[in-house]
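Researcher: Here's a chain I'd like modeled. Treat it as a single chain, no partners, no ligands.
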Amino acid sequence: MYVNLLKPIIDFLLSLIVLLILSPLFLLITLLLTIANSGNPFFTQTRPGKNARLFKVIKFKTMNEKRDAAGNLLPDAQRLTTVGKFIRKTSLDEIPQLLNVLKGDMSLIGPRPLLVDYLPLYSKEQARRHEVRPGITGWAQVNGRNAISWEQKFKYDVYYVDNCSFVLDLTILIKTIEKVFKSEGINQQGQATAEKFTGNS
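Model: Modeled as a single isolated chain. Structure tokens:
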């Protein structure tokens, strides 16, 4: 009852309230990133959601489009803008995903929506992460986020699928607030962003 009925209602109401409260900050970040990126302040990308159904996730764009002489994008670390680094460190880049929650593509809490390219790389067990709507934050995010291995992240994701409840969601929400203030687990060691998943060994 909670997962199929109460959770979607809570997601919608909380997302709407938070988006209204944060609207001044939303507008300010949009303006700053428009200047920093010399254009588009938003990043959109196709991601798999519940049952691997594709949707467009939206985030604040923390990296510019600078390229080398051959036309290839520069490494992530070189494309992170000053404003973008701060926004990523404070997790403010996730705010636009509240719009995805309002649309019903995402939940406030659930496994993070990852790249479409990863779909054929999952084991059967790992693919179970798509049995629920993806979330802005989740069990893996409050247990290490980008500082833990992909294998461990997927174990946390499947644990969430099997144990989803109001109490677990509330626990994750509280822990997420703590993590944001501490800025823990934002990057993998030696990486400006998360290292890509290349499959199981």
